């Protein structure tokens, strides 16, 4: 192992006193493998056992929802109340499998807000009654949250974090990115409130900061607490990098242990490397002269000039050299790996053993056969096809959870049919 590569294998001490055994993390990815009632299954346990065996120093769960009526999709794990004995045991079995090799396993806690699909909730709660701007009619008309409902959600996030700790998770991450509820509050496009939760950035960030304080109180000072934050929404008139930097400073002042830098929403899915419906809004961030494969490293580098808390960057990493450079150059303390681990759960171990490059499966995936490639010229169809390829990755997670191995030869069309069938079954069982 080279001296540089030793950096990826080195531990990271967090401000709370905990230590991550290396600099590679399995990023949060939606699994859809819980029961219709949000209880972890044997498939979810098997999947995380594979990932726990795969060499990452920390695993992040997919969305664990604090409200059963606001799912990112059916099959999310739900902790929105004190769990009964069976649910608590299922959560404990899940965390035991995920941590059996001494790695960390953090719960990503979330609320989908207006990005709740209409077949789950036709009128989801959101900061304001501003409907998501996507074609297809998948999302309903949102209803603005009352002050009392906001205060209740703060308590729900704290309860979810406490239960997660009690059930064996070794840290929590509050999801405030990708257009979900807390990200909606941060954006002036989706947050048009005129009360203490709207208007100024300070007001738009109030709910997030209230949740961070409540979660910290519920889990204690020595338990890792992270936030996932957009570097920007990349939408005109939305949450931009200047906003993100200020929120990061406020989070650091609250004693945050790790900030994960990401970006985009369903409307502008920058996190997936997919073009959105509208033109991307450029950000005033210096671009490195060195070509970077990761989407958000330059944003993290710009943040590093003004904040000192540990940073995690996810999105696009495939080359070991790029991962090493991100850590040595100060752009990231933790490297998040997502899509490669949908197919190869031991991707971190491969990198630590000296593998130069992980596969980029997404480059060979397409919903349309080659003779229909002209359909990609239409922006709406191109975006639809981009989201459809995500079903392929969803199907790989299901394969690993149910059968212990991925199926990379599966077509996007077959994966889409499979995932849609599972979603239909889960919806019918709600």
Overall description:
- The chain is of the alpha/beta class.
- It has helices at 5-9, 42-52, 85-98, 147-166, 181-186, 201-204, 206-219, 241-253, 297-304, 320-328, 340-343, 347-352, 379-403, 412-428; strands at residues 12-13, 19-20, 24-26, 58-65, 77-78, 104-110, 125-126, 143-144, 171-176, 225-230, 258-262, 311-314, 334-337.
- It has an eight-stranded parallel beta barrel with strand order 3-4-6-9-10-11-12-13, surrounded by six helices. A two-stranded antiparallel ribbon has the order 1-2. It has a two-stranded parallel sheet with strand order 7-8.
- The termini are far apart.
Q: Which SSEs are present, and which pair or pack?
A:
Blueprint: H1 5-9, E1 12-13, E2 19-20, E3 24-26, H2 42-52, E4 58-65, E5 77-78, H3 85-98, E6 104-110, E7 125-126, E8 143-144, H4 147-166, E9 171-176, H5 181-186, H6 201-204, H7 206-219, E10 225-230, H8 241-253, E11 258-262, H9 297-304, E12 311-314, H10 320-328, E13 334-337, H11 340-343, H12 347-352, H13 379-403, H14 412-428
Parallel strand pairs: 3-4, 3-13, 4-5, 4-6, 6-9, 7-8, 9-10, 10-11, 11-12, 12-13
Antiparallel strand pairs: 1-2
């Amino acid at each position: 192992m080279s001296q540089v590569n030793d950096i990826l294998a080195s531990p990271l001490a967090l401000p709370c006193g905990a230590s991550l055994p290396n600099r590679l993390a399995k990023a949060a990815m939606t699994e859809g493998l819980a029961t219709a009632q949000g209880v972890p299954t044997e498939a979810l346990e098997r999947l995380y056992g594979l990932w726990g065996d795969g060499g990452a120093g920390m695993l992040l769960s997919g969305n664990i929802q604090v409200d059963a009526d606001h799912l990112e999709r059916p099959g999310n794990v739900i902790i929105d109340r004190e769990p009964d004995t069976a649910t608590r045991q299922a959560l404990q079995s899940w965390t035991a499998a995920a941590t059996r090799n001494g790695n960390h396993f953090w719960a990503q806690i979330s609320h989908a807000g207006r990005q709740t699909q209409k077949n789950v909730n036709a009128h989801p709660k959101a900061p304001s009654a501003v409907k998501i701007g996507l074609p297809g009619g998948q999302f309903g008309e949102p209803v603005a949250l009352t002050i009392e409902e906001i205060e209740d959600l703060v308590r729900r996030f704290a309860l979810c974090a406490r239960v997660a700790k009690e059930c064996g998770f070794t840290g929590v991450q509050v999801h405030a990115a990708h257009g979900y509820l807390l990200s909606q509050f941060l954006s002036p496009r989706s947050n048009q409130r005129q009360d203490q939760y709207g208007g100024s950035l300070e007001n738009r960030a109030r709910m997030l900061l209230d949740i961070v304080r409540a979660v910290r109180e519920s889990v204690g000072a020595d338990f890792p607490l992270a936030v996932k934050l957009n570097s920007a929404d990349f939408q005109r008139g939305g949450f931009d990098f200047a906003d993100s930097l200020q929120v990061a400073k406020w989070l650091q002042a609250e004693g945050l242990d790790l900030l994960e830098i990401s970006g985009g929403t369903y409307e502008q899915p920058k996190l997936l490397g997919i073009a959105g419906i509208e033109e991307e809004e450029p950000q005033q961030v210096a671009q490195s002269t060195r070509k970077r494969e990761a989407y958000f490293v330059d944003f993290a580098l710009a943040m590093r000039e003004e904040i000192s808390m540990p940073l995690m960057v996810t999105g696009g990493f495939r080359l070991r050299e790029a991962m090493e450079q991100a850590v040595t150059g100060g752009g990231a303390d933790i490297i998040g790996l997502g899509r490669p681990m949908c197919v190869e759960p031991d991707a971190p171990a491969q990198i630590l053993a000296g593998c130069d490059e992980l596969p980029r499966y997404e480059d060979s995936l397409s919903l349309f056969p080659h003779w229909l490639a002209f359909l990609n010229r239409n922006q709406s169809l191109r975006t639809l096809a981009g989201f459809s390829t995500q079903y392929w990755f969803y199907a790989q997670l299901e394969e690993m959870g149910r059968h212990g191995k991925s199926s990379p030869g599966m077509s996007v069309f077959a994966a889409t049919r499979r995932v849609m069938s599972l979603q239909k079954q889960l919806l019918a069982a709600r």
